[in-house]
């Protein structure tokens, strides 16, 4: 029972990370029908920017405690959003009218570029987050010890997800994003500036990914330049699992994947952890070809 | 005898009943028009016949045998060819290749014989090419054979769809709004083409909004409204049927 | 049209034949790699380029072929080249089993599932499935291939073996493309529904595209295993699949495009070895730039050329006019 609870909360924490990254994939896919393969690397960049801000400027010491962390998170969000904005302008906008496959290759190229840029700047070795900024407090819930940082992770990712959900459902800009996702042409005719919506999506998605990067740094204490591939692939899996293009789907898919992985690693085999995640994905897609919450599009003939 | 027989065909999408208990027959060698207001379920009937959709209930008989539940390519093989309302050509392929697509189901050679380029495979390719060329000539597109399908005019794209369907060597052809987007001159030529198809011994079922074409070319009309059969009969009778007039012009205010 | 294609192939053939005379063993080895990637990408092109199926897990089939070869050779003493058809068949069988339930998935869903398959295969190899794959260390001591009593061991031997294989593959694939099978794949790529509506058994052709591509990748696995004499799971990672995917799309989907793509992605980075890590940075940037300036790829396939049969007789009067105007112009 204790083991199960530990794995469950751990799975939710990791799943929250997957969900935050998956949101970036799914939002971009929603408006552009493009898989942004560089998204995982924006997450890496977020993690490294967080490392730089924490260490080089000593923000944690300057503004002690949660305030410092929050400040760093906001700064990382802004910086990664800027990179996401530039990425879309440079690598994707010129390919908007081309085949989707050429955009995929452009995305892969951007991913390789970012990954190697991080490696050149920070070196191939992993970097350690300062561990004094990370709350070491352990909570006891019904006699089971849970690290506070884990609870905070879950709370933060859930909070961000709810905020995003509220934003897309309840605001004018959110409505514009949804309209663009459904029909770009019609959205344009209704006076929505589609280019601005796409730029905005390319800022929101990476901002969430960047935050997820910092959270991973805080949770595991270290970051390395290839982490974007692994997390990116998992988050993409989560987005597909939930039904790509669907925002609640990405949240559900991410949390589910995290929990499946944690429980699979604990109760089946840790060596097969990654394989279990993919196997579940394949099985679900065989039963529901458009993911858990994805719409079943009937072929218009 | 009837070549195609629909019996109590029903299809629903979610809560919407698109086709409701429809029964009608198409006699061999006839030209039959399927008409009705927008959203009456005409194209859905076509998609049910060609196996793109599976009916919820009812049955479809072709030449006395049921074809319900067969995959589309098997239905084509049995001799039912179709064109699409929204033109669905292979846009980036040449006109002749589009016509050759129809020949596919009458050919045998596979992967291995293609790699070995056996005499049988080459002879078959030649026969297919001849057939495809003949069908392009039939619709008057032979000169365009090397063009890409997407570079054809709208009217010619419709004709190419017909050529592709004819290349499947059908006994029965289904035309979904063949005159859509055509000018008067093209429509007039189309009427001749449709008659010529029938003269080759191929039964024709068509959906068309151009009433003058329908009245000129069809020997029998089937009228759908809200997915259900409203009337059927010879064009002259349908034209004067009050129910049909009402369906097209809208009901009087007193309902 | 055909003339220029034939001459360009003849030109490539001459260059390929004399190249080893000018190269040191290191560069010969680089060209062996280019050749191997070429065949792999050619076989992926059937699935991705010809049939338009988003497949990013080709390394899985390659891995099956290489491991079947390695196991057959090191455990049962089967000569390497004898193992080749079996490696191909094993990969084809594997493709048939895994592709059948997923073949109906649309674009991006298929993409992630094929990525999943390549990852599952890699993890299975690391975990030493059936106690045959040697875990993370892989299998070593694979013997050199013998061809008519001649031992193929030096880079230059492999060079000719691999490029002869490339040449055979191109010849066969070209024939395949210009056939009923090749056209059917293109119809599916252009419009799945219209293809089915024209009488093409789309599900079956998609599956056969996978099976054929896998068969070739499996056989290529044999040559890879023989060349390396040691194989491990890391040789068949997702990254390899990504590179192959990029070769096909950058190349544009034609066979010559694939050769060019393989040269650019595998060969060109070798020229910049001294720049070490910065070269991968440039590599990524180059991929983006190339796609922006040539979104259709470097060498997209040329339209097929058909020599129409002479139009003498016509079926109807109406067609007769058209044919008379054409005047047997083809």
Q: Please bin the fraction of helical residues of chain C.
A: over 70%
Q: Classify the beta-strand content of chain C into a percent band.
A: under 5%
Give the low-confidence spans of chain B: none
User: Considering DSSP H and I runs of 4 or more, what fraction of the residues of chain B is helical?
Assistant: 25-40%
**Main sheet strand line-up of chain B:** 6-7-8-3-9-10
Helix/strand order of chain C = HHHHHEEEHHHHEHHHH
Q: Characterize the overall form of chain C.
A: globular
Compressed to H and E, one letter per element, the order of chain B equals EEEHEEHEHHHHEHEHEEHH
Write down the CATH class of chain C. Answer: Mainly Alpha
Topology:
The complex is a heterotrimer of chains A (301), B (255) and C (330).
Chain A: H1 2-32, H2 39-55, H3 59-62, H4 66-92, H5 100-122, E1 127-128, E2 138-141, E3 144-147, H6 148-170, H7 172-182, H8 184-189, H9 194-220, E4 222-223, H10 227-242, H11 247-267, H12 273-287
Antiparallel strand pairs in A: 1-4, 2-3
Helix pairs in contact in A: 1-6, 1-7, 1-9, 1-10, 1-11, 2-4, 2-5, 2-9, 2-10, 4-9, 6-7, 6-9, 7-9, 10-11, 10-12, 11-12
Chain B: E1 2-13, E2 16-27, E3 31-35, H1 42-49, E4 57-62, E5 65-66, H2 72-78, E6 80-82, H3 95-103, H4 111-116, H5 119-139, H6 154-166, E7 172-176, H7 184-199, E8 203-207, H8 211-217, E9 220-225, E10 228-233, H9 235-240, H10 242-249
Parallel strand pairs in B: 3-8, 3-9, 6-7, 7-8
Antiparallel strand pairs in B: 1-2, 1-4, 4-5, 9-10
Helix pairs in contact in B: 3-5, 3-6, 5-6
Chain C: H1 2-22, H2 25-50, H3 58-76, H4 80-99, H5 107-126, E1 139-140, E2 146-147, E3 150-151, H6 155-177, H7 180-190, H8 192-197, H9 202-228, E4 230-231, H10 238-251, H11 255-271, H12 277-293, H13 317-326
Antiparallel strand pairs in C: 1-4, 2-3
Helix pairs in contact in C: 1-6, 2-6, 2-7, 2-9, 2-10, 2-11, 3-4, 3-5, 3-9, 4-9, 7-9, 10-11
